[in-house]
Amino acid sequence: MTESKFDYRKILSKYSIVLVLIVIMIACTFANSSFLTANNLINVCRQQSVIIILAFGEMILIICGQLDLSCGSVIALSGVLSVMTYKSTQSMALAFIVAIAVSVAVNFLNGLMVTKFMTPAFIATLATQTMARGAALYITNGQNIYEIGNYTIVGQGSLGIIPIPVIFMFCIFILMAYMMRHTCWGRSTYAVGGNAEAANAAGINTKMVTMKAYLFNGVLVGIAAVLFMSRVNGGLPAGASGYEMDGLTATIVGGTSFTGGIGTPWGTVIGAFVVGFLGNVMNLMSIDSYIQQIVKGAIIAFAVIWDITSKSRQTYKKGK
């Protein structure tokens, strides 16, 4: 009897975020009749795809005991350079390469400050956040770049009824699910985030694992930059402001522990849609944007408090 009860609680704990998503979808459907329409759901999926890709990068870093506050500004910098490259060459492949290269370079700087100079991730990425945003505004003289032609296809186009950004997101999700479970580096990120000293004693190069996490995050941010600029139909040096918080929120709500060592790609996807559906229904109901910010902040606070409380409870039980 006790074992059955334990299994029930374990399953409920593991899939609680799925139940939350279902409850929110039901509530949103009753709150606004336009919520459960095909066009609205497709639009939410298109919008959330960029956030989810960012959230995957945040997930890896948080599992590894790090974080990235610069990704929104890096989207702006790498995105405007990508748009400028496309306008000069008409090559979408080269536009992607430029965006990814710039994002990886900034994240290499993040990783270098964290691993080589032992700078706290919060300070390191806050510094690059400011630098990247300043560079984006300087390069464009603070002006948006318009008339970007077919650059918009990857962000606004669809294959059948499936938006192209969703296809990008799904492919990255499959890659992430495989990497985190079946590769040495993926498993090492959990070990480093769970207990860096124990991981180091076990022969894991913690600094290299951390640096690879930042570099992979750079690849994801570069892809997200192209999708974002393509969706908004321009190179916006002031764009993607606050996206780092959206990515962090999706990650934490999706069950990634802010103390490191715990997190899954599928949980991150569901967490992103929990936040995305709430934001969407508030827009449909014409709720003030300032109120929406308050709700998002409350969600972050609740998720972090829940994470810390749950982990403290588990530690207490182990101590007994």
TrEMBL record:
<dbReference type="Pfam" id="PF02653">
    <property type="entry name" value="BPD_transp_2"/>
</dbReference>
<feature type="transmembrane region" description="Helical">
    <location>
        <begin position="121"/>
        <end position="139"/>
    </location>
</feature>
<feature type="transmembrane region" description="Helical">
    <location>
        <begin position="50"/>
        <end position="77"/>
    </location>
</feature>
<dbReference type="InterPro" id="IPR001851">
    <property type="entry name" value="ABC_transp_permease"/>
</dbReference>
<keyword id="KW-0472">Membrane</keyword>
<feature type="transmembrane region" description="Helical">
    <location>
        <begin position="159"/>
        <end position="178"/>
    </location>
</feature>
<protein>
    <submittedName>
        <fullName>ABC transporter permease</fullName>
    </submittedName>
</protein>
<keyword id="KW-0812">Transmembrane</keyword>
<feature type="transmembrane region" description="Helical">
    <location>
        <begin position="15"/>
        <end position="38"/>
    </location>
</feature>
<dbReference type="GO" id="GO:0022857">
    <property type="term" value="F:transmembrane transporter activity"/>
</dbReference>
<keyword id="KW-1133">Transmembrane helix</keyword>
<feature type="transmembrane region" description="Helical">
    <location>
        <begin position="214"/>
        <end position="232"/>
    </location>
</feature>
<keyword id="KW-1003">Cell membrane</keyword>
<feature type="transmembrane region" description="Helical">
    <location>
        <begin position="89"/>
        <end position="109"/>
    </location>
</feature>
<dbReference type="GO" id="GO:0005886">
    <property type="term" value="C:plasma membrane"/>
</dbReference>
